[in-house]
């Protein structure tokens, strides 16, 4: 099994919005595809340990903001590199609520899907949700970004520095940072589930 | 509901290979995503009326060839614009068989996934399959194509011609051609399920 073979699957980049009993939250996901068209159905996958995943399992609805070419690393970092368990991600980020009262972002979004979950399958690390699309809107005339665009153009490049002290490790897949100099070989990223092989060192300044 | 909002979802382009009792076949699909990573699971969707879909439902396995930047329109047309019910698609196209004896193409492929279906959900027009990835191989160092690349760079452009007779209609989504001058307003593409709005005229020479 060559893990790199999976890097050739193409994805978009999305903000997945949730509302559970009035508490709103959102995370970044790269997995969404339309899987039927009469009636319209989409499928998304989310990490089980992720707060947004827990919330949408309970609420049964979500919003999906398709990120466009204006997307900045700050937006990805804001929704993707921190947890709603510790931070109110919408305290300082412009948003509106859709018909299900799920939040969606007001900038860097080219499409908005308003969705109701019709089935959920637990696959171990992730759950796969099939959802009815209740509404779909075009939000800008910008093209969407792909996950490859994010890796190539949006994510900051790491410099190779061999003469400096390692102070941490960064997941090359999702950007999660572990603030320890030693990375156990069986370490698994708590955000995206990728193994130690997918981490790169963070050096002291 | 704005149908165009769905055009902002990003996809790859794949050849889905099947073998049922020794008969081999394949079709084009744009829906595949990794949905879990321990154990590794992917999800694909296929059109229920499609022969390859019928075959993999019965055989329980499939191959997935990820198409790369060398992909030509001829390859897409070969696997996507004709049915294995009428044509032996592998009679004149170089292929090999994977461990499940499903065919995969030898050129224009950057990754190959060997897959075993673990669940199938009928969604009306399409079925959604969750599959175990038994093997994954990198097949070239070329980048994969996205569905947007296909629409923009690979698919031939249609000229606007208003002084010619309309002899048929072509689905702008999948390329299916209807050889009739009149397109009923409730017509639905038999290949990809898109409505009459997504068809463009084919003119007489």
Throw out a few tags for this protein.
homodimer; 205 residues; mainly beta; Pnp Oxidase, Chain A; Rubrerythrin, domain 2; 2 domains; seven-stranded antiparallel beta sheet; 12 strands; 12% helix
Task: Describe the structure in your own words.
The structure is a homodimer of 205-residue chains. Chain A is mainly beta and 205 residues long. Chain A is 12% helix and 40% strand. The model of chain A has no long low-confidence stretch (mean pLDDT 92).
Summarize the structure.
Chain A has 205 residues and is mainly beta. In chain A, 12% of the residues lie in helices and 40% in strands.
Rg calc of chain A: 17 Å
Helix-strand makeup class of chain A? mainly beta
What is the class of the largest domain in chain A in the CATH system? Mainly Beta
Query: How many separate domains of chain A?
Result: 2
> What overall geometry of chain A do the principal axes of the alpha carbons give?
globular
Order of helices and strands of chain A: EEEEHEHEEEEHEEE
Q: Mean pLDDT of chain A, rounded to whole units?
A: 92
Q: Greatest interface and its residue counts?
A: A-B, 54 and 55 residues
Tell me about the largest β-sheet of chain A: 7 strands, antiparallel
